Amino acid sequence: MKYLPVLFLGLILIGCDAINKDTRVIKLAHGLDIEHPVHKGMEYMAEKVKENSGGKLQINIYPSGQLGQERELLELMQIGSIEITKVSAAALENFVPSYKVLGLPYIYRNQEHRFAVWDGPIGEKLLAEGADYLMRGLCFYDAGSRSFYTKDKPIKNPSDLNGMKIRVMNSVTAFDMVKALGASPTPISFGELYTALQQGIVDGAENNAPSFYTSHHYEVCKYYSIDEHSAQPDVLLINSSLWNDLSIQEKKWLKDAVDASVIEQRILWKESVEYCLEQVKAAGVEVIYPDKEPFQKKVDPLYEQFKDDPVISKLIQEIRDQK
User: Fold this and answer.
1) What is the pLDDT of residues 23-76, one digit of tens each?
2) I need a surface site. Which of 50, 54, 223, 299 has the fewest CB within 10 A?
3) What's the confidence (pLDDT) of residue 22?
4) What pLDDT is stored for residue 48 in this prediction?
5) What HEC string does the chain produce?
6) Could you say which residues of the chain have pLDDT below 70?
7) CA distance 20 to 98
8) What is the pLDDT of residue 193?
9) In the prediction, which pLDDT does 94 show?
């Protein structure tokens, strides 16, 4: 899919959502399919905003990459052509380096631990750090755990990855992790990945079960190895200038809706993972549950590179200390 240049698209979007004097309409764009549980969580949030405000604050959602993929959407938000977007935490590493800690492999003990990190003081601090780049975080949506899916052979231990080309997000953390496991990291936009898999540009990728299913990548990749190497959340972001322009009442309407949507989205996520795994199995995908310990041992040295980074090393320790 071809995208219009960001500045030109920005001009098109100006004035798209007519606003009368009693209603503020906010544009939210993202790259996910409408069946994805994160999209459904944002739909729930938009409904709650409208309900909370009695229609005075409304959110119009543009899903499925209609306005571009993550990088384009971040740029559109920065120039104010859209006001809210949702991107993976990995996409924010180049703007706010602290976000890379959320993608470190096996940093969380379990699901309860990672929710405690995202919902507590550590998460609040990270969400606030993007404000200087016009990217104020509103919340973390659960994007589950990322695992490998491949075309020609299953991944049962790290040695199976040797020499394979694995698509990764444009994230230094993801690059380093895949290299540590013996594969060749290859950055490709999510919207172009299906074709890249078909054409053999990459041998596989890594993602969560709902994304594997809703993207139809299971039609090409018949092996899904659930090693759960990382659990990067999706981040809901608002243009900082718009946030500052909202009244105290509007901020409350929005924040209450966002908080409610986090709870709802996590329920939807759990249901979706179960459903998507059933569907890919029915489509002939072999789902493998490898021993995670060999993978953990291979990536442990990655933590050494942060020992002289006071910010990241402090965050790592805070996450490990989180109850």
Assistant:
1) 999 999 999 989 899 999 999 999 999 999 999 999 999 999 999 989 899 999
2) 54
3) 83
4) 98
5) CCCCCHHHHHHHHCCCCCCCCCCEEEEEECCCCCCCHHHHHHHHHHHHHHHHHCCCEEEEEECCCCCCCHHHHHHHHHCCCCCEEEEEHHHHCCCCHHHHHHHCCCCCCCHHHHHHHHHCHHHHHHHHHHHHHCCEEEEEECCCCEEEEECCCCCCCHHHHCCCEEEECCCHHHHHHHHHCCCEEEECCHHHHHHHHHCCCCCEEEECHHHHHHCCHHHCCCEEEEEEEECCCEEEEECHHHHHHCCHHHHHHHHHHHHHHHHHHHHHHHHHHHHHHHHHHHCCCEEECCCCHHHHHHHHHHHHHHCCCHHHHHHHHHHHHCC
6) 1-21
7) 40
8) 97
9) 84
CB 73 within 8 A of CB 235: no
